[in-house]
From TrEMBL:
Pfam families: ABC2_membrane_6. The lineage of its organism: Bacteria, Bacillati, Actinomycetota, Actinomycetes, Kitasatosporales. The keyword Ligase does not apply. It comes from Streptomyces thioluteus. InterPro entries: ABC-2_transporter-like (IPR010390). This is Transporter. The keyword Methyltransferase does not apply. Keywords: Membrane, Transmembrane, Transmembrane helix. The chain crosses the membrane at residues 6-28, 57-78, 90-110. It comes from the Bacteria.
Length: 122
């Protein structure tokens, strides 16, 4: 059951990151590479265990753009491994709450972008 929740939570977190990147395009024209660095770069980042990266990058992927909740933290708990950040064990179960928070924030950013959108004028 936990693995199924991991998959659904991971999809929701990535949907929120993609939506936030799309909302960013309302204000920053021709800045798609910035959002690609978080979406596709985050996907590449999650293919490796967090212990191969510097602690600052792992902290950023946990607390700034919480991609660690996609697979790192839940998989550490599922496999019984030690957390490189020494977080409490209950953090592995926060993925659904993080996904809901991110979806809410990215939805608000999208709505704000739609309200401020001005057409190209053509």
């Amino acid at each position: 059951m936990f693995a199924v929740v991991m998959v659904v939570t991971g999809a929701a977190i990535f949907a929120a990151v993609f939506l936030a990147g799309a909302a960013f395009q309302f204000w920053a024209s021709d800045a798609s590479e910035v959002s690609n660095s978080f979406t596709f770069g985050g996907c590449t980042l999650l293919q490796y265990p967090p212990t191969v990266f510097a602690k600052e990058l792992v902290r950023g992927a946990t607390f700034v753009v919480p991609l660690a909740f996609v697979n790192w933290l839940p998989a550490l708990w599922l496999l019984g491994r030690d957390d490189p950040l020494h977080l409490p064990g209950w953090v592995a179960f926060c993925g659904p709450a993080v996904a809901l928070l991110l979806l809410g924030l990215s939805g608000l950013a999208w709505r704000a972008g739609l309200r401020s959108y001005r057409s190209t004028g053509s």
